[in-house]
Amino acid sequence: MTQETQPPFLQETGIPLGEYQAIVRLLGREPNRLELYLFKVMWSEHCSYKNSRPLLRLLPKEGPAVLQGPGENAGVVEIGEGWAVAFKIESHNHPSAVEPVQGAATGVGGIIRDIVAMGARPIALLNSLRFGRPDDPRTRYLVRGVVEGIAHYGNAIGVPTVGGEVYFHPDYQENPLVNAMCVGLLRIEELKKSRASLGRPVYYVGSKTGRDGIGGAAFASEELSEENESKRPSVQVGDPFLGKLTMELTLEAIRQDLVEGVQDMGAAGLTSSLSELAHKSGLGLELNLDRVPQREAGMNPIELMLSESQERMVLVPRPGKEQALEALAARYGLDAVPVAHTIAEPVFRVVHAGQVVAEVPTAALADSPTYTREGQEDPAIARLRAVDLGALPLPSDLQDILPRLLASPNLCSRAPIYQRYDHQVGTNTVLVPGSGDAAILRIKGTRRGLAVKVDANPRYSKLSPRLGAMHALAEASRNVSVVGAQPLAYTDGLNCGNPETPEGYFELSETIQGLAEASRALGLPVVSGNVSLYNEGPNYRIPPTPMVGVVGLLQNLEQRAQQGFQHAGDFIVLIGALEGHLGASEYLWVVHGQEAGSPPPLDLALEARAQAAIRELIGRGWVSTAHDVAEGGLAVALAEMCLPYGLGATLELRSPARPDAVLFGEAPSRILFSVNQAHLQAAVKLLENHGLPYHVLGQVGGSTLTILTPKARLEWPVAALRQAWEAPLREVLP
Amino acid sequence: MKVAVIQFPGSNCDQDALWALRLVGLEAELVWHTERNLEGFQAALLPGGFSYGDYLRAGALAKFSPVMQEVRRLALRGYPVVGICNGFQVLTEAGLLPGALLANTNLHFTCKEVFLRVERTDLPFTRAYTPGQVLRIPIAHGEGRYYADAETLERLEQNHQVVFRYTAPQEAPSQEGYNPNGSLNDIAGIVNPAGNVLGLMPHPERAVESVLGSADGLPFFQSLKQALEVVV
């Protein structure tokens, strides 16, 4: 196509010619410049899931507790006594890469608004972070900025940050990941959706619109490059104080039953929030831009429509409640302006200075084309997976390895991070960070509690995207079971590379298929999620990173488990096999400098039984200390149980296998717990009834961790292990 | 005997304070920052949070809010007034307590459990404690380093106005690094000379039930209840 015949604005907007032609077909005419921009943001991967939608259909979304699955601002699950929980995870990767403080802060603000839009009061935040090499100055800059941003927003708005996880891996060097998850509590009758009836005024509520974050959704859907450093104007600026006011105003309006519909104004700002509201309502909408509260003069329609200024919500008042809503907003000192109204004709019409400046069918904006591509595994990954680890030399000194593993960036203490987050505001946090495999929040006025955990192992996913995704769901779910809760459902933050490359699409497709398989086997539906693609730079493509956030229910908060050994003399029992696998293990990376082999196999039926068994042991009141055996294997898991109270243990690991596989090898479906002698017999019997392999390993006591193997006696003072474990992140976050 | 929990727009521990007060059986209500009348209240609690966003300086704007006139009136009439965390910052900004709360020496918001020694048990906030008792209570603040000039500090000590001090846990009395923010004289909480206006950085309302990890803050609210019952 020559320069002359190229449609106008095509190059400027970066819309592919094929999509442009589809737009012309849908409109029956050429779009004008503003209309083209509306399509650009609405058809971006971030808003439209055009590369992932066909794959996401594979995921189970139904379950007896599900009140709202994917498609609304957040998923909602019923938890009994008239209560429900709304939750969702969302990525803010690219903004955080160019401006870590504001990128992370607005990621938190955005996910909080999603939860509020469902009518839920946010009660917990979690985050899942990925960075490059920890010794790299740029990594340190990013870590400090991201942690500061999360703290800045979450602490001020008063929602506790109760959990999270962070991994360092060289493949995130150019493209860190910042995913934030929020959990909210609501009464079922106050559940809200993005809906409006015909002829209703649609209110813009909250902060004014400025020139920040313009086109952020589209920016999130491109690869990062040197030029992106200059994309700071694409990054939104967060104000937790205004966020707090907007949240309280919205929740109070719902409580007083002033509104029939609520929609967050997040990615793609006015364009996305209003066109989606109209489309979901089966209606059209006319927006008058002249009424939009503006922070600065002279903003043109494109800027107004694409701005992603933060702390804005869309509220649809019930008939006759308009003035009450305006009065409530005045109490909080916020704008509440009827900027639009719903119309019968299913079009999204934008009026500026008295003129119609855009008019497109709402369905056209919502229904982007989808792409199903040919995937092909990166042969380099297949080669790494096929490496034979049988010939791996056995280290001469096993004693030295445990402190080294505990000091590895991926296993060391996270206290320097979570101590910067207010994890207790709201006075519901029962298990604080560092004290259990999942955070526990109580529900005031009931005996119930919620357990929440987000997890993903990038090494597993890099070497086998499908198996890695299965492990992510199995482990997050296991962590929730290990504190005593019944997992109910999950949210998934799918972070992958460029889907337009064969290897990128392969990794996305395999990840979703793995998740689907594990979902079905474990009976866990997905109720919300986020897809973030194009996570790569010039040199590195991120490992597929499915951040899985599982929410579980404790019927009785009194029956729960934490991670630390509490009573000397208790017996230590392992559910599962003594021997782990070396493939894709943290040990292999830290000690041998290799990332190779296959992640451990996962038997999902065994996994389900192991989780059911530990829940039952806790539910019967026999077990109050339990811990999942994850990265670093048995030795690291045991050390992690000694650290909270400084109480040691003595164990015997009788296995003919190579000692490093027993001590540090990894395998799923393994859980350690301690039990009083009085309940030991019954506990063991219960495991037998579940058909589970188990081993009684030893007893709690003393101030050292002592492990006897057939050929060696290994002994570490708990205080020395603590020193090794506590120091490394303090260096990054002093 | 009703306690007003003052609600600035950026307060975020208001509901937690209300919960703790009601847990011990006190009558308590939220009072919005624009309120000009605290008639009918016999005590006020200024909760933690970020009063007006605190972008300027923690508590710097809150002192100008309409409700603070009334808080001042209650304080002058001898009713108990408590400021927790941001509430303590507001009380110092408003001049109801001496000194100032500066950025923590680590320059970061810090949320963790600390240990406090109770220095006085003759106050409406501390009667249910025993002298020298060591409490386990969480902190959550970025600006909690108590500072006052040498003269003021000297006067505070002489008048026994320091009520709570950061200390090492009883199991490890020689442990160092117990002062989480660099406060002078390890000060965590002080009271005015009359003994009715108290400010403290740690959060007793976060430690009122064992399910939350500690109930060491419960006697704080029980003391207040006792004191208010005596007033009536």
From TrEMBL, chain A:
Binding sites annotated in the UniProt record for substrate: S91, H92, N93, H94, R113, Q236, E308, S309, Q310, S532
Reaction catalyzed: N(2)-formyl-N(1)-(5-phospho-beta-D-ribosyl)glycinamide + L-glutamine + ATP + H2O = 2-formamido-N(1)-(5-O-phospho-beta-D-ribosyl)acetamidine + L-glutamate + ADP + phosphate + H(+)
Q: Which organism is it from?
A: Meiothermus taiwanensis
PANTHER family from the entry?
A: PHOSPHORIBOSYLFORMYLGLYCINAMIDINE SYNTHASE SUBUNIT PURL (PTHR43555)
Q: Name one GO cellular component term.
A: cytoplasm
Spell out the protein name for this chain.
Phosphoribosylformylglycinamidine synthase subunit PurL
Q: How the protein assembles, per its UniProt entry?
A: Monomer. Part of the FGAM synthase complex composed of 1 PurL, 1 PurQ and 2 PurS subunits.
- Please list the residues that bind Mg(2+) 1: E90, N530
Q: Where is each PurM-like N-terminal domain found? A: 71-185, 436-553
Where, per UniProt, does this protein localize? Cytoplasm
GO biological process terms, alphabetically, are:
'de novo' IMP biosynthetic process
UniProtKB/TrEMBL annotation, chain B:
Q: Name one Pfam family in it.
A: GATase_5
Q: What is its main location?
A: cytoplasm
Could you list this entry's UniProt keywords, alphabetically sorted. ATP-binding, Cytoplasm, Glutamine amidotransferase, Hydrolase, Ligase, Nucleotide-binding, Purine biosynthesis
**What's the Enzyme Commission number for this chain?**
6.3.5.3, 3.5.1.2
Drop me one GO molecular function for this one: glutaminase activity
GO CC aspect terms: cytoplasm
* Any one GO BP annotation for this protein: 'de novo' IMP biosynthetic process
Q: Identify the InterPro entries for this entry.
A: Class_I_gatase-like, PRibForGlyAmidine_synth_PurQ
SUPFAM superfamilies per record: Class I glutamine amidotransferase-like
Compartments annotated for it: namely:
Cytoplasm
**Associated pathway:** Purine metabolism; IMP biosynthesis via de novo pathway; 5-amino-1-(5-phospho-D-ribosyl)imidazole from N(2)-formyl-N(1)-(5-phospho-D-ribosyl)glycinamide: step 1/2
Is Nucleotide-binding among the key words of this record?
yes
Tell me which residues this entry annotates as catalytic: C85 (nucleophile), H203, E205
Q: Does the keyword Transcription apply?
A: no
Q: Which reaction does it catalyse?
A: N(2)-formyl-N(1)-(5-phospho-beta-D-ribosyl)glycinamide + L-glutamine + ATP + H2O = 2-formamido-N(1)-(5-O-phospho-beta-D-ribosyl)acetamidine + L-glutamate + ADP + phosphate + H(+); L-glutamine + H2O = L-glutamate + NH4(+)
Q: What does this protein do?
A: Part of the phosphoribosylformylglycinamidine synthase complex involved in the purines biosynthetic pathway. Catalyzes the ATP-dependent conversion of formylglycinamide ribonucleotide (FGAR) and glutamine to yield formylglycinamidine ribonucleotide (FGAM) and glutamate. The FGAM synthase complex is composed of three subunits. PurQ produces an ammonia molecule by converting glutamine to glutamate. PurL transfers the ammonia molecule to FGAR to form FGAM in an ATP-dependent manner.
Query: Could you give the subunit structure recorded for this chain?
Result: Part of the FGAM synthase complex composed of 1 PurL, 1 PurQ and 2 PurS subunits.
Q: What name does this protein carry?
A: Phosphoribosylformylglycinamidine synthase subunit PurQ
